[in-house]
Amino acid sequence: MILTKYLKLTVSVIAVFVLFTLTPQDVNAQLSKKQTKQLQKEREKEYKKKMKEYKKENWKLSGSSRTLEVALLTHYQKLGEDPENKEFVGEVSQCQSINVCKQFALNNALNRYSNLASGHVKGRIESMMRADANLPEIEADKFIAAYENLVQAEVSGILTESYSIVKSKGNTNEYKTFFILNEEKAGAARRRAMEKSLLETKIAIKEAEEISKFVTEGFSLE
After folding, report:
1. Closest Cα to residue 221, out of 187, 193, 171?
2. pLDDT tens readout for residues 95-137
3. Residue 221 placed within a domain
4. Cα maximum dimension of the chain
5. Cα separation of 88 and 178, whole Å?
6. Strands, DSSP E only, in the chain?
7. Which of 45-49, 148-152, 180-184, 212-216 is least confident?
8. What is the pLDDT of residue 206?
């Protein structure tokens, strides 16, 4: 009995000792492992749900000899390789040629991203104009228009196709391309677009610095 109590006490002391000797990195590593396992479980649920949806709606993989199952699993693997990797979708309906569908889906993704990026900056610049009489509306509008076009051009180089799906609707197709968008690279692309856009305007340095903060900010991809 005494020996049993002694062993229990020893185990408790060791447990407390181990707890207090763990470094923050050790604790974070343990948490990270739990989070990774949880994320993996959630992705497995998402995968099953997505495949069920694809089969029900008769989606087929386009432009690849792989199966849709493998393409989707590979897609999730790419998303998991870097926390900065995000999914971004381009889609088009009522297109006939698959090549045309593919190009239109890419254009749709680029247009949507540039609209989101410029819309985020536009709202912030309009707030600046109400508070700062030194920021001319004409120059602000010129900047926003140039920025939207240049973001589209810059982001086209970093938007990576992951997989595409297609389904027929009579004589036409509905087409979706799922891209991987790295937000760190996208931020750098937006800054390049901003720098080029500012060269085309007469916005003062003070206001340009403030605008650069807006451009650097992340925003929802929805």
Report:
1. 187
2. 999 999 999 999 999 999 999 999 988 888 888 777 666 677 8
3. no
4. 88
5. 6
6. 60-62, 85-95, 160-169, 172-182
7. 212-216
8. 75
Strands 160-169 and 60-62: antiparallel
* Strand order, beta sheet including 60-62: 60-62, 160-169, 172-182, 85-95
Same domain as 11, residue 89: no
Segments forming the whole domain that contains residue 169: 62-216
- Taken as a whole, the chain contains a residue count of 222
- Work out how many domains the chain is built from and give that number: 2
For residue 6, name the pLDDT band (cuts at 50, 70, 90). very low
83 falls within a domain: yes
Same domain, 45 and 133: no
Domain end position, chosen among 56, 82, 97: 56
Report how far apart the first and last C-alpha atoms of the chain are (Å, whole number): 64
209 pLDDT above the threshold of 90: no
Tokens of 4: 């049993």
Within a domain: residue 133? Answer: yes
Q: What tokens were used for 68?
A: 């849709």
